[in-house]
Amino acid sequence: YTLLGITKLVSLPCMPSGYLEPTKCTLRQLRRRQTTEEQEERIRERLRAGAEQPQPPSPYDTAWVAMVPTGGAPGVPRFPRYVEWIMQNQHDDGSWGLGGRLRLPWLAKDAVSSTLACVLALKTWNVGNEHIRKGLRFIGNNSSCVMDDKCDTPVGFNIVFPSMIRSSIGLGLELPLRQSDVDEIFRLREIELQSTDQGRKAYMAYVAEGLGDIIQDWDEVLAYQSKNGSLFNSPSATSALAIHSRDTNALKYLDLLGNKFRSSGLARSWLQNEEEIIMDMETCAIAFRILRMHGYDITSDVFSQFSEESRFQDSVQGQLNDTKTLLELYKASQIRISEDEWNLENVSSWTGELLKQQLSTKRVSTPIIPQEVEYALQFPFYSANVEPLEHKMNIEHFDIKRIQMRKSAYLACHATDDILALATEEFHSSQSLYQQEVKCIESWVKEVGLDQLKFARTMPMEIMIFMASTVFPSESSDARIASIKNTLLTIVVDDFFDGGGSTEELKNLLELIEKWDAHAGIGFCSKHVEILFYAVYNTSNQIGAKAEEVQNRSVISHITEVWVNVVRAFMAEAEWTRKRYVPTMEEYMPVGEVSFALGPILPITLYLVGPELSEDIVRGPEYRDLLRHTSICARLLNDLQTYEKERNQGYVNSVLLHALREGGSISPASMEVAKREIRRAIVVSRRELLRLVLREDSAIPRTCRELFWNMCKVAHLFYLQGDEFLSLQELMAAASATVHEPLQVTLPSS
Predict the structure, then answer these.
(1) How confident is the model at residue 346, as a pLDDT?
(2) What cofactor is needed (predicted)?
(3) Which pLDDT score, from 0 to 100, does residue 270 have?
(4) Same domain, 283 and 352
(5) Residue-range definition of the domain harbouring residue 33
(6) What pLDDT score was predicted for residue 95?
(7) CB-based contact 469:734 (threshold 8 Å)
(8) FRET pair for 372, CA 20 to 30 Å: which of 122, 157, 352, 561?
């Protein structure tokens, strides 16, 4: 649900923000809300009934389990109800399987494979002659797909399908296949069987049902048996092991499956215990990422087994070119909170390289689409899950009937039309709200006179909304608008101190802000100072009044203090420039952290998010550390991308100061060392910030801590490719997609 932007099952009200004008709900809006509420209730019913409905049964796996004989009675099936299920679940065209049910041409191989497995199971016990006849007719009518490269090929098809042909002939069945196709697929089988590397050995055990005629020592296959008795949690491979070796543990596993699914066919089932989860790369990565991001104190030691690329290449997933497993490992490896987590560093390195290779060679495997891989690589976990944009991409590429192919085809998820419709409606509601906010901010800019200040940088409002939407959830409109107003104010005031104002004007503005309510006796030395002061003063008082309603206490003294600190930092940097003073790093960083001006943007707007924040909390060390590490990351990211421009303009910068300290002068060699040191400092602060956000024993509400992390991600995004103006085109495209562009999605008609 969250991947599609469904954060909670509620509708946006008609009046979403205290800043926006109240609007009357039209009859159409009321009907839409009623429809949304009905969708939400149907989804709740699904959640109450179970988070996921059972997977549709797999005729392929069911057929292989149905072939297992009873111990001591080889002519009797151990699971007769599965034989019965096969006869009761044949499609009208004679086929079995998802490929036959959905009638999708590209699933023809799956339909033929599943149908032959079911025919073979029935013939094994000499039952269902009419079902066998219809199944063989379907295979004959669709035999051309066997060698059709355009059809999706089930895993192990070139090994298992020829084996089933041989077994069928041995049972006296006459298969309606062209001899040339049979000869060709047996040739392909021989090619696959010639490979003997370690990874192929695991793969061969995974498709053991296709190797019953050539495996001489099943003890070698037992090397891949899990503690639950299965081979890779595969009913078909485990059935082959049970048939040919009568292994007790394999039979116990099949008996447990039989008890679980009873009279229905066997479905693809979830891993059941800790050992299975830890050993499965994809599931282990997902579990680690979810648990750590939800604040659980979980160790990364489990990733030591995946730290080398060879572990993947020697696995079934590696042999299958499994993009989904690679992507999940890569995502999990990004969540590093300690410098000692070298195993995550290693996993990140090799998975990133393999994902790039898959993109360049166009070998991204389903159900992952190339855009998902591109997004993960372009925007690392810490640099911008740009959630509104990510939600848009996920909705537009979401397939309710997304099919994944393993040994047989299965639905990769259990989504319904309601989920897609609800995600679409929530995106449209958020987008409409963002458009209202753009108009609100544009009106405010004119109201306070910022449009009259020609020295100030301009920033499209869509980008401001886009950035704020990645920090604050869609329902936090007041906080988002307040953050945008303060962002614009800090940019304009910063530009004023960076050359837009004279020394007299800078001192005048600083004195006015320091006096705050007692400013009347000071006066304004210019119109620019008057506009800037009243823009800061009046806007801050308005935000403070709204915050007081939420916090049940006055916070205006904190707002005043934050602005005083920021403007003093701006003044210190202006003085350095005017006097051509080169500070030490120890002098620069405390000022630089504050002058990045997150103080008015983040801590103040946190008061509008919801949870009450006491004076003790906002004055406490944990709160200061959250702001400090967020500010360090933002400041150093900015410095890393703007040092050349600032050097030319005569400004100091952490990169330049590091280079001076390293070599005594700025040279190419000292600059490279400096940039390396700055990047290391960013990593250190980012990891510490993530640790603070994820810690369990915190007095600060999790929702507030997460906003510091979101702001850090926005800083990484903003300076991903250079100074903001260098990446303005990319940002504008992303912002337009979020704020203006309609979803490219077609909903089923109701």
Answers:
(1) 92
(2) Mg(2+)
(3) 40
(4) yes
(5) 1-53+414-439
(6) 94
(7) no
(8) 157
